[in-house]
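queue> pop job 88
queue> type: inverse folding (structure -> sequence)
queue> payload:
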């Protein structure tokens, strides 16, 4: 009896410590798309990985949710960026971060891929809707896309209102935020941060544009591939912002320095 009680307590402790990991699915046409979910107590903060090839972000949130509350969704495409779709003998690829502008469009598309994209977008937005704050985790390549892109590349000239750069940080590691309160908070914390121009930005179907145009709290964490320690730090910093401007939630365990030796 004693050993049985010890086993029950161990299972309960493991659940409380690491949360529940499960897999859901999006079923559309002949396709089943796996969604990996980690839930650690509170669902007030929702994290999402839209591109499964952005493995540094995935490792960062898995580390953070060991001792912090939140729920995490990840489209599992076997480390590929796009979602492969088969429909009536046709095969095509969907970028899951280019589908959210279809939510306000009619459903009777002649192009079947549009209807499939809308189905996936609806699923994800319904899952995220329960959270007070949604955070997307992204990775970029050194020199291709950074916070300086907003100041130096004409393609981004209508995408932002303000940029704050900490010269001590790598320019590839930065936040994209959708309101000035978020911008001022992370600026004061000495992070690189971009304030998105929700009105003028071209709607490319990305989640940040959807949230910005709908005035819903959203933060994107951009880090260079391999900058695990920095992405962990930036993900943890979101809890400071949340506890300042929302109803505070406590981290489940005392924060410890992450093991980056592996």
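queue> result:
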């Amino acid at each position: 009896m004693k050993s049985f009680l010890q086993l029950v307590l161990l299972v309960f402790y493991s659940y409380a410590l690491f949360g529940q990991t499960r897999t859901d699915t999006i079923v559309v046409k002949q396709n089943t798309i796996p969604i990996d979910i980690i839930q650690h107590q509170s669902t007030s903060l929702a994290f999402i990985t839209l591109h499964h090839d952005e493995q540094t972000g995935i490792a960062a949130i898995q580390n953070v949710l060991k001792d912090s509350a939140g729920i995490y969704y990840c489209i599992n495409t076997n480390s590929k960026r796009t979602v492969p779709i088969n429909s009536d003998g046709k095969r095509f690829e969907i970028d899951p971060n280019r589908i959210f502008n279809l939510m306000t469009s009619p459903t009777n598309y002649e192009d079947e891929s549009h209807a499939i994209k809308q189905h996936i977008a609806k699923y994800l937005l319904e899952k995220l809707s329960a959270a007070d704050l949604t955070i997307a985790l992204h990775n970029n390549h050194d020199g291709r896309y950074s916070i300086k892109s907003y100041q130096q590349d004409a393609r981004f000239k209508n995408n932002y209102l303000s940029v704050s750069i900490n010269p001590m940080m790598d320019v590839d590691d930065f936040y994209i935020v959708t309101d000035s309160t978020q911008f001022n908070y992370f600026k004061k914390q000495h992070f690189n941060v971009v304030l998105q121009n929700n009105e003028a930005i071209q709607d490319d179907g990305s989640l940040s544009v959807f949230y910005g145009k709908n005035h819903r709290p959203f933060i994107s964490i951009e880090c260079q591939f391999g900058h695990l320690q920095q992405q962990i730090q930036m993900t943890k910093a979101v809890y400071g912002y949340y506890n300042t401007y929302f109803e505070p939630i406590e981290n489940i365990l005392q924060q410890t320095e992450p093991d980056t030796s592996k």
